[in-house]
Amino acid sequence: MAANVETMFSVREKPWHGLGTIVAEAPKSEDALRLAGLDWTIESNPVFDGLGNVIPGYFANTRSSDKKVLGIVGSRYKIVQNKDAFDFTDNLIGEGITYETAGSLRGGKTIWLLGKMPERYIAGDKFEPYICFTNTHDGTGAVRVCMTPVRVVCNNTLNMALSGAIRNWSAIHSQNIGTKLAEARQTLELADQYLVRLDEEADRLANESMSEGEMRDTLKKMFPVDEDATDRQIKTAEKAQDEIMICTLRPDLIQFLNTKWGFLNAVSDWVGHSEPVRRTQNYDENRWGNIIGGHWMLDKAMSLVGAAA
Fold first, then answer.
1. Degrees (nearest 5) of the Cα angle 269, 270, 276?
2. If you average pLDDT over residues 87-99, what whole number do you get?
3. Which of 110, 239, 287, 300 has CB atoms 3.0–4.6 Å from 105's, for a disulfide?
4. Mean pLDDT within 23-49
5. Based on the domain organization, do 162 and 236 belong to the same domain?
6. 133-145 b/e with 16+ CB inside 10 Å = b?
7. Model pTM greater than 0.70?
8. Average of pLDDT values for 160-171?
9. pLDDT greater than 70 at residue 11
10. Does one domain contain both 77 and 61?
């Protein structure tokens, strides 16, 4: 299956190049997990050496549905089941949060649920804010929550690093219902803080001018070329710079023309929609990670234009 997407569902439309199952709604996490094909558990099994002896201190995280090994972990690793990782998010339902999509990557090693928050206006533009919950079963990461605001008019993701507001955080997922409720409230508070801070930054940057020359100078810093760079490397850097400059002139950004906010939106447009010079096997998977967790290039652009990163 393309894009390293193993299973998924989506409300209303299919992302990931038409993959997944369209549903009307998934009101609870158990429904989202079932529709996304994530209603399986992780089993801990011993690991053996070539002679059939148990290797102490190591265990195989095995998927119950097909006995596939998703990762080898140490004795200190604590399994967080799909249901346990996400059932606390049901406490957000009724607070304006609805499930939009869920699925798995890397053969089930990474799973996610995406919750949609009520629409917000940032710098006069309509945004659809999303909260993404991710979990891994190969020992490479914790249960995490992150903000992903999407500018509706162009479907650009503007999840930038901001001062005074964190973009992603870890989740505890205790079995205690009181802890779950407190964690759900914290999730809403942190998400709201991020959106408020993003609106403040957007308003400030939309009122700060940025000339074409300043944009070009910034892009040269974003795409530095060494003295010993090849002609191909130079052309690749120049092509990226020219494409971003073209993005600043797009109709949906005319209102922010020659401003820092317009420049950042152009970078976001380029990051999210441009074709790579070379499409690697993991390109779509990495792109999904950048959309959810934030793109380093967008953060660098923020820092260079004077926004605190």
1. 140
2. 73
3. 110
4. 83
5. no
6. bbbbbbeeeebbb
7. yes
8. 87
9. no
10. yes
